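Hi V.,

You were right to ask for the full record rather than a summary. Here it is.
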Amino acid sequence: MRRIITVILSATILMTAAATMAQGGEADLLGTTWLAEDIDGRGVVDRARSTMDFTKAGQVSGLAACNRYFGPVSLSGDAITFGNLAATRMMCPDTLMDQEQRFLQALSMSKRFELTNEGRILLIYADGSEPGLRFSKIIKN
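Predicted structure:
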């Protein structure tokens, strides 16, 4: 009898831990803002900001380099996918427009994310083993 109770208790603890981990993705990112440091292994243009804000559950917004963007994001465990993102339509120099296109393309291909360096670095991956996007956390005072 004691063994059955131990097995049931262990199974309950494991199921609770798995459910908590599955919800952890959104909880870890909600209310945070990130600055892109690398897009597809090609770096970023100096002083050109590509950002990502997780201000509300299920929503993302930011600056793609030239234009602002916003739209739905789905987070579950370490899985991340972006829905159809809308953006403003200003024209900028070609280098900024190129960075913006690479940034938005990398977001559209996103599959999973990883927080490293005590939650100060956000890596977003598509299908490969190398991150397509690397962000540093913007600390707000």
